[in-house]
Amino acid sequence: MDFSSATIAAQIIAWFKGLLPMIKRFVSYINGPAIGIKLLSPVNEIYNLEIRNIRGGVAIARVFLCDLTGADEQFTGRIVSPIEICQGNTIEWPRLFGQSRALFPILMVDRHNAKGPSLLHKAVGIFSHGGGCSKHPSSSTLIPPSPIQEQKEIRLTIRVVFYSVDEPHTELMEKFLRYLVRPLPEQGTYEVRLIRPKHVSIFD
Predict the structure, then answer these.
(1) Angular region, 98: left φ>0, alpha ψ -120 to 50, beta rest
(2) Nearest-angstrom CA–CA distance, 114 and 45
(3) Global confidence as pTM
């Protein structure tokens, strides 16, 4: 076996070159974006999800409603494919860096119907016109208007995704969260809180 200085040096260089991609990925992870999520207290019965980039770099944030089940986890049929939730009243994708944040209304209480309150969320709606289509904010119903005493608990599965600024369709990372929404007839309002499935770890 050749243990000459030149051979050992070549082996060390080859070993270091093999490590370079891993080192680059590690440095990118340390200095790159990370998802921070917080459910804010309701304002005017609108429940906003606050999204921040809690590390470095810049990322595009998008939020999706992936599933809606009952308290028994049974499929309700209301969400058959992921629905993108828009940021407030705009469909623009926010770029998050530093102390910036974006608010996504995942739940809104509407009391304009005589039948009772309904639960809505703000979605990105696609509208067809003149042979083309355009996107605009729209409201989608989660629970139709009815007396709050008759409404049942639901559970929402939310997916938060960070995308690359340079390649807006390239995903950098994601987090799944589940929220319980429970009617409180005595108070005439709703309890909304995070629940953590056993198979998902959420660091927020």
Answers:
(1) left
(2) 18
(3) 0.77
Tens of pLDDT along the chain (204 residues)?
455 667 777 777 776 677 666 655 555 556 679 999 999 999 999 999 999 999 888 999 999 999 999 888 787 777 778 889 988 788 888 999 988 899 999 999 999 999 999 999 888 766 566 665 667 778 888 999 999 999 999 999 999 999 999 888 899 999 999 999 999 999 999 999 999 754 444 444
Token pair in block for residue 47: 């429940």
Task: Kindly list the domain boundaries of the chain, sorted by start residue.
Answer: 1-31, 34-195
- Bridge partners of 163, per DSSP, are 60, 171
